[in-house]
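Minutes, methods subgroup
Present: GH (chair), OT, SY

1. OT presented the first of two proteins processed in the latest run. Sequence and structure tokens recorded below as shown on screen.
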Amino acid sequence: MGANNVEDGGEKVEEGLGNRGKMSTFADGRPRLNVGANRCRGEPMVLTLWGFTPVTARAEQRSIFLAMGPNLTEKPAGYKKNEKREGVFELVKLMSKAEKRNFKLYATRLGCNEGAKFLLLFDCFDTLEQYDEAKVLALCPSISKQQLPNLKAHLYKQILTSLRMLGVQHSSLLEIREQVDFVKILFDKGLYVEAQKLLAKVEKRAVELEQLPAILDIVELQRQLKVLCYSSEMTQAADVTAKATAVISEQLASIAALSRLSVQCYALHQNLGFARSQKDLDRLNNYFKPRIEAYEGREMNFTERFYFYQAKAWYHYICHKTALSYRYALKWVAHFNTKPEMKELMYDSYMRGYAQVLDGMFLMNKYSAFTRTLEEFEKESLTIGRLNDNAEMISQGILFTGQLNKCLMAGTYKEGLWIAKNIDSYLKRYGDRLTLHEKMPLYYKVASLYFGDGNYAKCIENLAYIIAVKDRNIRRDLQCYARMLNLMALYDAGLDFNIDYQIRSTYSFIVKMKDMTEMKAELLSFFKSFGNLNAMDFKRELKVLHERLKPYENHPYERRTFYYIDLLSWLESKISGRSMGEIVRARFEQSQRQETNKPTNKKWLHRLFGI
């Protein structure tokens, strides 16, 4: 037939296929897949982006397709197929050089431990990249398969003991617990005077740091020591102990109730996202509002007030009251500045408060304050992130999220691509320890960055990790919006060969999640009809859709869609023919000019947060 193969990304098509075999386009000029092409004789055919094509062109077109879409065989960063999880092995791999050296000194403090089998096992684990029992037994011939479980348990205990001894020097909480143990030892030895002296010191430190469980142990030890003193003090000691125990128990009950409210709000957001309807808002107000407000005006200690601020911040956040959530997040962080020594004990809560402040500024589009706060947190992370591996992991995750949000606010998508590469390394390093709740927002933010930059292949690739999540109770909001953003990316990339199936699948999923809203219905209806529109009708429908969606920016709960997808900027880019980055940057520059000319009273920010 003398057909010419597809060349240069589809600029040429096979002759003899007729109109159905040629590349067609949408109303906006994007290439459209034709699947009804006539088959050519003489060569086997394969379905590609441009129709049915001879196998001789398959390799070239496959490379083009992979450049436009995700490699579905690629696994997420940090993924390891069929890797057996072994706690002691993972602990060894996470130890620093200093910790390993300290363990060796601790384990060999007795000469008889030289060459002990658990030390051989430690060295073996240190050299392996992945746990493999067969390799372990091969590298340690003196260890039998029957001995291995007991040796692993013994090694685990020895490492933890070594790390605890090393951590006491840097952790006030471990130091308090160690001192309480020393008091018990002195008491058992009958050294009551020495025990009382040490107990007085540790009590003062425990009260300063509000370690109520430790204080309960201290009060009980004080009672036991008083009983051994003069008989005239026994009754008085019992009364004092009873009163102290009652006060501490009341505080613990209050902390438990407030922390429960805080955890409930946080868990609700992690499962569902923001309130989806008026029905959700009513339920939230009926359950959380009276329970949280019951603590208004009460005298609280540091821990109680922290959980109170945290619960208020999360409650208002879910209810779309961003300004109130932001205000309580500021109080949350500023609360730690009143007692800096608590930052070390509650470092994760302190840093997550910073993350909540940054998120509030992002949603309210406070770019200048956001940038200053992100710089402040970056300085803080240099200190707090050094406490331990967990603190470093949390601080890096918050920094990456903040940097991504900064690029999304300013429309500097291309400048932010280096962040995506660093996040990939971050996920490879901590992928096994990060939960889906922590990884999914990062994947979604990176996908949004690539979408704004026009790199739809990388956008679809990152969204695929969210869409592949099987548990529908984890971040339902992200799972729904990931499918919608995926539709938009497929549309812009011209990968529409199964767009009808994708639309039906997305619609079905959102309905199943009970998250179908007017905005989602409008957008899905548009996608369903755009294939039949000509150029003039297409632009007109885009303008109509933009006019319909614009009022939702101030809707009580429909506006949450704009938190996830910048639909208006996307529509404006299609209408005007400019890139999405140009649209967002122009709006950003205009808002910055308005912010510069607008006088603001920032005294309350200085009082609360020091910015």
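2. SY then presented the second protein from the same run.
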Amino acid sequence: MFTPHWAAHGLSSLARLLLVAAASAFLAACATPPTAAGAITAGDTRADEATLVFSVTSNSARIQQFTGVEVTRAAAEGRSPQTYVVAPVGREVTRDTALFSGRVPEGEYQVSRLLFGQSYVTLSPGGRELLGGFRVTPGGLVDLGRLVLTGQGTQMLLGRSRIVLDNSHLVRQMVPQLQAAFDGAPLGGWLQPPTEADRVEAFSRARPVGADGITELDSGEVAAASRLGTVLMRSPSGQWSAARTGRLESLLWLTPTHDDGARLVAVGELNSLFRMRRDGQFDALDPGNLPPGNLLFVAGNSQVGWFVAHQREAKVTLYSSPRIDRGEWSAMREIDVAFSFWNGLNAFWAWPTERGFAYATSAGDIHHFLFASRQWRQHSAPGGHRITAVSHGHAGSLGLLTSPGGGFGGVFAGSQLSRDGGEHWQEVKQPFNVKVAPALMTGPSTVVVAGGVFSSPELQGSTDMGATWTRFSSAVGIFDALSWTPTRGVFAVDSGRSSFGLATIRHSGDEGRNWKLEYSNGPLGMPVPAYRPD
């Protein structure tokens, strides 16, 4: 059981930590408007500038795609302060980690603001001081390593990584065509080592946000992919711990395996690919000939082969390979997930099945791949409607939220349930006027659904396929992701996107009627311990 820790020393530590950075109304005074840093091109250098490179990893569902970072050059004799906007590069191959580069003139700088489209995080004066300044020496390469951003309530904390000290690995992955521009000898850099008060990275790794691909293992443990290179492991008694890959890139999915004496395979952004051994340690696997991108899903084993869903920009490609390490991947299918003016977002969902795996798209198609025959089966959503949400629950059941047009379904959405993987459908009359989630089967005769957009959010349950409903719980929010497991119950994951950054995992052992808080990234909670296999 994950329990909050309210000791006085926890409050003291938090008070120091919140000084690192804050999302505040403070704006740095600039004598002139921000200037775009010069773009990096291979073989293009100027004697009065340096190539600046750094990366940022976010441990927050509220902030993922960075659009720029402002760095401010300090005033000098006869020169006013000047702010430069450093742009991200290679954004199409990542989710929570961004690489920034640009050419800036010599001087001493501080990171002043992080940009996210129309939103931003501005460092307070104390945050700038604790993060530290850096020097740009002209004619060379200034590599600041990795910064880590994490949410804590309404605050955002920014600190320096002690794990990732340079960006050579990211450059090779994200912008290999520009690698020659980053081959110069490092010059300049941080003016001093990280201060003792800068503990953002350690704080974040002890409280990773997110739990994707929740999977039950043969041992009775439950595993979930999380941020900062972490697999969250739940013991049969309900205690969560963190198995760490040693990297900071987010993990997005995992699957159990018995190959080579392993427990599971985990995949994630930037083609992250790991195998967890029986001792709980990780081996980094070579992605082989996969192009740069994010791995959203993985399934398979050494007998039937391996399969991944690979995303780059607005395209998801399904690949197969006889082996997973140094794989020789062949494309099976390509799925367009680009935004459509007429239909809105085009989403992609994938999940394991008893005999293979399946995926669905917003277009309304559901595809099943069978390992044994290596054949596809296809079904369509009822009425040819588009799909806006998918659930997969007890005994291979599927729940759909459908829309006759594009975008969010709401009052016009349909709720459908299938007990045979999509071949036959039954309409489920939800108890909510505004439907925001699909029905989920949590037992042989139990169906649950979350709702309450214009009232108190709650989870309703039915034991007669929706003919009658009973209020099960108010502990589960509207946008919590529900995951069913065969023998370990149901899990509700709040990513923290809409709850002031507070990410939680709740568990129900009675098909959704009662819930227990088992994990939280709250500031005063006990950090999740390191994983120790039995």
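Chair's summary of item 2: The longest strand covers residues 141-152.
Next meeting: continue with the remaining queue.
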